[in-house]
Amino acid sequence: MKKKIVQIDDLKREFIMGDETVRALQGISFDVEEGEFLTIMGSSGSGKTTLLNILGCLDKPSGGTYFLDGINVRLLNRNELSVIRNKKIGFIFQAYNLLPRTNALENVQLPLYYNAAVSARARKERAEKALQAVKLESRMYHYPNQLSGGQQQRVAIARALVNDPIVILADEATGNLDTRTSYEIMALLQELNHQGKTIIFVTHEQDIAAFSRRTIMLRDGQILKDVMNQQVRSAKDMLTAMPVTNEY
Amino acid sequence: MNTLNLLRIAFKALERNKVRAFLTMLGIIIGVGAVIAMIAIGQGSKKSIQDQLSNMGSNMITIRPNSNITAGARLDFSNVQTLTQQDVDALKKKARNLRYISPASSARGQAIFGNSNWPTTIQGVGGEYLAIRNWPLKEGVSFSASDLTTAAKVCMLGQTVVDNLFSNEQDPLGQVIRFNKIPFRVIGVLTQKGENAFGQDQDDIILTPYTTVQERITGSQYFQNIFASALDENSTNQASKEIAYVLRASHKLKSQDEDDFTVRTQAELIQTFSATSQLLTVLLAAIAAISLLVGGIGIMNIMYVSVTERTKEIGLRMSIGAMGRDILLQFLVESILISVTGGIIGIGLGMFSSWLVNALLKWPTLVAPSSVWLSFLVCVATGVFFGYYPAQKASRLDPIEALRYE
Ligand SMILES: Nc1ncnc2c1ncn2[C@@H]1O[C@H](COP(=O)(O)OP(=O)(O)OP(=O)(O)O)[C@@H](O)[C@H]1O
Ligand SMILES: [Mg+2]
């Protein structure tokens, strides 16, 4: 039996806005096993980001339980959550969130600065390896403004990989990219998944969800369906099949 | 997180905003530069006054006649005449804390030698005067005891008088000059002493036995001053009390009477002048400190702007594992780096400008190591103090909201 990375049970998150209470998550339960590629889908406002923030230990649930790698996250304080994020989680954001005027290599090293156990030398080596994994070894000393959107997102993926997390969380990571570049990113993530990385990917695009083995559909803070995709598409194959046309 | 990483992160953040960091620093640079330069000017003038005063002879005690208040009006010093030979004798006999005593009475007049003439002061003094003033002869000898008793017409010349009466080749020793038409034989030349603390030329003087001045020039029994020197520096206060006691007895003053003389020790003079220049130093330092404060507020301002502007960066750092403390320290170290770098540049600038003031304006300056250390510490404190609130604000941000910030 595979190790359970994420175990959530009856997870709730309420936002109190004056007199009103917004129930963003209303009792969500599911497990994620090691090596899974899970997409979370749903319309706008359905609670995807709220769920991912809790999974990423940026936010705490108002109710229910969340075990990450066997640790009860609800019991942790702010600093302990920071340590968990630093060691066990890799984030990929829609807007890349790279530090400006800071080269790719430095950006990728960033999480390791907050881990006192990693020496300066190990930090650089690991960042170089992470950049190789996203095939950007030739752009190590480029600044974000010298990179395309897709390349910037690959730097961000390298940054998410560098601390060797047990799960990678992505929120609309292809939301700012065109179809072709999105597929490139998905191909990269699929490759990482084949190497054993657990990935949870929030999207509202059906064709992106089709690259994952499992999809959870949210509606109004509840799970609408939790399905295994019978036919997982290969982003790499689709890229090669795509005509390299010049549309303009 | 270890300190080295902290410094690296802060340094890189500043590097990304070099121009702004420098402009922020400018307030500190100017503030610290001003502090260092102002204190250097204040300390320099204090030290030069002290040097000049102690150059006059550090054990020296000056006794001057002092008017009793007459019908509510104080008389002009030169008209007051209370010090006599009797006083000198009493002091010589009774004051045990005094090593040397010399009365003095002087007169203005015209000195003439050959075709040269020069308006100067003749000062009649006792044989111990040169020892009191710590003033050696360049050549020749001082007058003898018999010169004193006979009111001999012999003199010693200050360097300024020599320069104005004699040409370079002439040796003044043995020559006869005239002062107010009275011939004086030159028996000695004094070493050059330069200006005193009040800017007077101490070398513009002719020294002669006081009996000579009293009998042949002023015709007065009274002395303008009595100079004395204490046994050593520590006994000057004791000595000045003793003098007052002896003189009051000698002048037959009743216990309710005010002193009709003033006793001034060199140490008191030094203190008076030191206090003045101390006040100057404090004033200058206060002005400079205000500019440092303004510089500190500048840092705080920029750090607040920086925290707001980098909200997204803070959110990102938190999401990848930075604790609140890491963020706090990052911004604190940034502001300390700004203030300390500014401080170091400011110290350099302050030293350079005090050197410049000294070289161009010829003002004495003294960069005290304590002022350097103090302003350095003040810079660190400024960085911590003015950086703390912005840094704390940054550390308390909610990572989700910070990430969402546009
Ligand atoms: N900080 C907050 N305060 C109040 N309400 C919030 C907050 N964050 C989210 N919500 C509410 O929770 C609900 C779920 O929001 P969430 O951001 O998770 O949606 P989403 O599925 O990510 O939508 P989208 O696809 O547009 O990103 C929404 O109704 C939103 O208004
Ligand atoms: Mg969302």
Automatic annotation (TrEMBL), chain B:
GO (cellular component) term, any one: plasma membrane
Alphabetically ordered keywords of this record: Cell membrane, Membrane, Transmembrane, Transmembrane helix
Transmembrane stretches, start-end: 21-42, 279-306, 327-352, 372-391
Broad class of where this protein is predominantly found: membrane
Protein name: ABC transporter permease
GO molecular function: transmembrane transporter activity
InterPro entries in the cross-refs: ABC3_permease_C (IPR003838), MacB_PCD (IPR025857), Macrolide_Exporter_MacB (IPR050250)
Domain ABC3 transporter permease C-terminal: 286-399
Species in which this protein is naturally found: Paraflavisolibacter caeni
Locations listed in the record: Cell membrane
Pfam families: FtsX, MacB_PCD
Entry keyword Repeat: no
